[in-house]
Every structure is written in structure tokens, then in C-alpha cells.
Prior knowledge:
CATH superfamily of the largest domain in chain A: P-loop containing nucleotide triphosphate hydrolases
Structural class of chain B: mainly alpha
Oligomer: heterodimer
Largest sheet of chain B: 2 strands, antiparallel
CATH class of the largest domain in chain A: Alpha Beta
Shape of chain A: globular
Strand content of chain B: under 5%
Strand order of the largest sheet of chain B: 1-4
Strand content of chain A: 15-25%
Order of helices and strands of chain B: HHHHHEHEEHHHHEHHH
Radius of gyration of chain A: 25 Å
CATH class of chain B: Mainly Alpha
Number of strands of chain B: 4
CATH architecture of the largest domain in chain A: 3-Layer(aba) Sandwich
CATH topology of chain B: ABC transporter involved in vitamin B12 uptake, BtuC
CATH topology of the largest domain in chain A: Rossmann fold
Number of domains of chain B: 1
CATH architecture of chain B: Orthogonal Bundle
Largest interface: A-B, 31 and 30 residues
Shape of chain B: globular
Helix content of chain A: 25-40%
Number of domains of chain A: 3
Number of strands of chain A: 22
Amino acid sequence: MSDQINTAAQPLLQLRQINKNFPGVKALQQAQLSLYAGEVHALLGENGAGKSTLVKVMTGVLQKDGGELLLGSKALSFATPKDAQQVGISTVYQEVNLLPNLSVAHNLFLGSEPKRFGLIDKKAMAHQARQLLSTFGLDINVTAPLSEFSVAVQQLVAIARGVAPKRGAACTKVLVLDEPTASLDADEVQTLFQVLRQLKQQGVAIVFITHFLDQVYQISDRITVMRNGCFVGEYHTASLNKAELIAAMLGKELCQQRHQTPCLVVEQSESILTARQLSSGQSVQQLDLDLPAGQAVGLAGLLGSGRTEICRLLFGLDQADGGTLSFAGKAIKLSNPAQAIALGIALCPEDRKTQGMIAALSIRENISLALQAKQGWWRVLSKKKQQQLADFYIEKLQIATPDAEKPIGQLSGGNQQKVILARWLAVEPQLLLLDEPTRGIDIGAHAEILQLIRQLCQQGMSLLVTSSELEELTAFSSKIVVMRDRKKVAELSGEDLNSDRIMAAIAGASV
Amino acid sequence: MSRTYLPLWITFTLVLLMFGAGASQFEGFASLRVVTNLISDNAFLLVTALGMTLVILSGGIDLSVGSVIALSGVAAALLIGPYQWHPLLAFALILPCAALFGAGMGALIQYYQLQPFIVTLAGMFLARGVATLLSEESVAIEHPFYDAVAEFGLELPDGGWLGATSLLTIALVLLMLVLTHYSRFGSYVYALGGNSQSAQLMGVPVARTTILLYAASSMLAAMAGIIFSFYTYSGYALSAVGVELDAIAAVVIGGTLLTGGSGFIIGTVLGVLLMGLIQTYINFDGSLSSWWSKIVIGGLLFFFIALQKLLSQQWRRKAGGQA
Lengths: 511, 323
């Protein structure tokens, strides 16, 4: 990375003060990004930081609610992905978004196939496909369906499509890669990087989204960090060390005002749950974990470090293939969530939209769901009972709604989260697993949920809380477990319980 | 052999076997006459199934085609009879109207994100209802043009005879073959069937393609209705009941995946031929109940659906790990 990007010149593409709202969520607030020709620009942030939303605005999949998008000095607005492609912005999405049923060649040129006498010239198409792929070091049968190839090859084909010339469109000026390396092995990553360097020399601006920080340092020239839908900062990769980068991603300055009650007094208490050498395939490796009764334990680590996987494992969603687990003094084996619920374990999942709430059902129905499931469907909760339950939690959690019959989909993010919490509180679990309970909710609701976590501990419930916001974790945890690369790397408590120590542990020796 | 072509080869082999079985047992089975009769007897089904292939390739279904056949038949008979239109003029009105009807269904499916099953089911009732409203009785067609068309044809050796409707059907098969496999529109249809979300992200005009392909299906069904009217010299609101299901059966037996994205026009042709051959075999035998054809087709359908499931599971396993 010897060639410095001339940031004095005019950016190729600029996104300024982009706003984007979804019902109940402010996905982007004043987000920004500027790209220069011939750079690899890493776009970083934790899950839910708004990277994908920003990219979708940039590529015409979503329409921005506010702000401007400048190509050179021309303000643009895209209604469809095709509009963005026309001006030379190509995207390779996180999942391979190609068509497994079509041939490799057809995937490369769909929509701009070479023609002869008005018909698709399959021979010429295959020839061009072979040529294009040879620059990627790929020599494969381009007439075979894409589904016959490995995910890595599919990924490279997707990138090749991104830079392939398109009918009636400008040549590719901006290439957006959303987690392109997630499914590639080390060699394949290097092949990809070679291709990226080639493209860079041709003057293409590359947006590179990833959660592999090593790769960021290997390939990128500049970095933009986002958090909670907001722009955090823009940096030259060379002048930002890893610890600073992680600090920017996870945020430090935030929670000062709600840090009133420091760590809870740590009393020695018995473990409600004990795991020894617990493993599950590649996702969790040899985990030792003790969750003390009546306390909240924080689970920290970057995206993909194994946080969510631990929650899934402890709730019986994934099965352990090694190690032991005991709950309330008894050895247990979980093979499905129903067993976990019966034991008194509850999980509030990470993505409330797809894994938690049922948008069309009312608050009352959403709250009664888990209790009803636990009781068994033959013992129906009467509507009156459901009503009482809902009213109780609306009051207790201060859910902002006119009544319990409002569909949950119409509530704000914070209130949706409270309803999901209420659902599991209604079951009166002994252990509550909260996976990112404060993601995507406004600052007020945020503080309320933290308050609630403390209250629950005082009432004797045990909690395991995953969060990307470290200040938040330190605000209620009696102990914080730090994960990196699917392994537990530290367990902090007492004096060590502060965000600097957590960050140091996350960054590990490689800082 | 590639998995993509496997169902096609199986159908092709079955067609040969069936023909071989007939030829070995019955005198006169192995003749051009039988082959050309096969085409002319099944012309309207084949034309309907061509449109159905397109719809199923895109991952949809069109249940309205049987009713559209009846409606276009009745409309043609009324326009030619009581209203004294020239048949060609009547066809020139009916075909675009049918295309509009299909486009309407396509638009509903696309813009309201409705299930094709339910939209075309509504279309099925609607078209059948309108046909019955136009005339509850069968309307006879008497016109010199119809007589002329019946006379026209291509004489082949061995008792073979390709009439006007057969020639038209063959032309339509060739047209659809090119449209499906060698045009951009055709690739878009496959793209929709593969994964409509990916297709959208790859810049495929999803809305236009969806609307066009349902329009094409309805228009081909209307064409089939017109062909049907040349067999019967009439239009009848209660004709062609259940033809949509025969067409779906032919498409599936022809190796097209019901989930969309994989299949061939030539497969559908083979599927229709196989179904026709079974019927011909039963006719030659004379002692078998003609319901046997339904039983055999039912068995074949089970076999092909199981095969599809097996193949698509393998497909997913191979592409797996990307979810």
C-alpha cells in the first residue's frame, strides 16, 4: 500500500448525511461515506451498525429518506439496483446472490448477453466468460450450472460479474463487496485480494465490508467506521492501530450518563449454570463458563467471535458435541429449546424482527406466546388471563402503547424489545439469555432496559447478556466473559471490569 | 450425464419405450400416421403446455388456462356466428384480449405480491364464468374459412397428414424454443425461477418479465382455444375443464422443476407426446378402459416429482453452506 490516495482530489462518490428509517428503527442517521478512485475503502462496524443499509442505499436497493448522493459533482438518486448499475456502481452481496440454476457464463452476463441475429450467442458468451474468469485465476467449465461449484468459486464469479461490462452501463467505477471473504479459505482470500489490487490499479473504488480486521489491514487504504447507524469516523488505515479501530467500532464515549450505578456488589453465590469444555463444531470451542445465580454476566467480543453461538447452545438451539453442562446442580443435555424452557432457561434472540416478534400479532398475543407454549397447548390461557399478563408488563416495563391489542409491528424498536422481554419474563425463567437486547433502539429505551436488567438480578434471576456496547456491559455485569475466534480469551471481574480491559482482551496479543 | 438433462433423457427414453411397445404389439402403430395424429390430437394441449412451461420455469403456476381455452372458443364462435365476423378478425381481437387478461393476473401477482396459485384460480373462475355468461349452450361455427383450414395440410407418406393446426403448433413450438432458450426474456424467466430476489439484485426487470410471461401463457391458451374450435367446429363454455392440470402434468413429466428455474421446452413436447402415446396405445388395444391413461399419468407424475425432489436436494447439498 505504498501508493497514497490523493484525498485532496474530488471524491468519486460521496454519500452525505444519509437518513433511512424503518418502522420503529432509525437505521441510518446522518451517515456518510466518500470514495476515491483507486482505493480500497473498508466500511466497518458491528452488526446493526448500518453498513448494509448504507450500501443498499448506495446501490439502489433501498431509497434514502434524506441526504444526498454525489457521483463526481452530480447529485443522483436511484430507484432500482439497475439505476445504480447504469452509472457504474456494482455490488456483490453477503450471500452469493447469483442464480444457481443458470450456467456460470449466463450468471456473468445476464442482462447483457452477447447477441447474434438478435438471439443470445451462447458460444461467444462462454468465450467471454472464460476470458473474464481467467483474470481471476479461475479455469472452470463456464457452461455448467453455477450450483455445481463451491461457494468460494461462486463468490469469485459474483465479483467477476460485478466488474463485467454491462449493456448500456458505464464501466464499473465503484465495486461494493459485502463480506466477500466470509466463506473463503486463506488461499482463496489471497486470490481475491490480488484481483482487488488489479481493479484498484484500473481506478475502481472498492468498498470492502468485513469483520476480519486482519484483512482490513492487509488490503484497505482507508476506513470508515459506523456505529448504531451513525458515522463515527474516517481514517487512513496506516495511521490507525487495531486497538483504536476497535475502540471506534465499539464506542466508548457513549454511556457516560447512564453509568450511575457502577458494577453491582459481587457476592459469592452458587452457579446456576456451569459449562466445562463445552464445544459445538466450529462455532464454540472448549468453553468453561460459570453463571452465578442472581447476577448478570456480560458476554463481549466482536461479531463472529462466538457470542450468539453460546446463547444458541445454552438454549438448546444448537447441540453440543463435547463437554458437560449442568444447570442448578444437575447435569443436563439440551437437544431442543423446549427442554431448555422446561428447565427455566429463556432466550431473547439477537434479531427480534425475524427471530423474536410476530409482527402482525398484538402485544397481548406476543407476550402470552412463551408462557402458553410452556404450559402446553391443551391448557389454554384464557383471554382474561392474557389481558392481565399484558397489562401487568405494559405497566411494569412502561411499554408505550395505547392498549395491549396494538400489533407489535407498529411499536418502536425499544418497545418491541420490551414486549419480547416481557414474553420471557412471563415464563419466570431462572436464567435469561439476552442476545444484544439494546440493538437498534433509542437512547431512552436503552437506559430503561439496562435498569430492568439490574432489577431482574435483584429479584434473583440470572442473566447472560451479549452486547457490542462495552460501557453498557460494564454497567450491569458482575463478570464479563470475552470471546475471540470462538474461544473464551478472558474473564474479567472486579477492578478489571472496564471497557479498556475488555477492548484489550478483544484485540488480544495482535494489537 | 448432467443432472439438468437427466429428467429429459428419462422422458425421452419412456417415449421411445412406449412407442416401441406399441409398435411391437400392434400392426400399423409404427407409422407416420400415428405420429402425425399424435400431434394433431394433442395440438391444443401442447400449445397450452408451452405457456405453462414458461410460467412454471419462472416458479409460478397458471390455473386459468383451461377456462381461457373455453372462453376464447365461445368468443370466437359468437363473433363468427351471430356477429358475422371473419374468423381472422375475431382471432385478432381475442388474442390481444387474452394477453391483457394474463397481463392483469401477472400484474396482481407482481405488485401485490400475491400467490400465483390464488390469482390464477380467481382467473380460472372468472374466465369460465364469463364464458358461461356469453352462452350456456354450445355455439356452432359454420364458416368457409374453417372448411378451408380443415382441407389445408401437408401430405406425408405412410398415411401421415399435417393439418393447418399441426403446422401452427409446430411453428409455435419452434418460436417458444427460441424465445425460451435463446432470448433475453427467456433468461429472465429462468432467473426468476432460480431466485427472484437475486434476479432483482442482478438487474433483471422482474415486474416486466412476470407480467409478460403470464400474458404469454394466456395468449397461448387462447390460441389453444382457437385450435380446439377447429376440431369441434363450435365453442362451448364447459369445454376444456381440467386442461390446466393436463398441461401441468405434461410440463412436469417433461422434466421441468415445479419450483422453477430448470426445464426445457423440448421436455414439455416430450411430456405431451408421452401422454398422447399412452392414450394411443389404449386406443389400439381396444379392450383397456381409457381411464388407464389417467392411472399411468398419475403414476408417472409421482415418479417425476420424487425424482425432482431427489435432484433438488442434491443440488442444495452441493450449493449448501451459504445460507
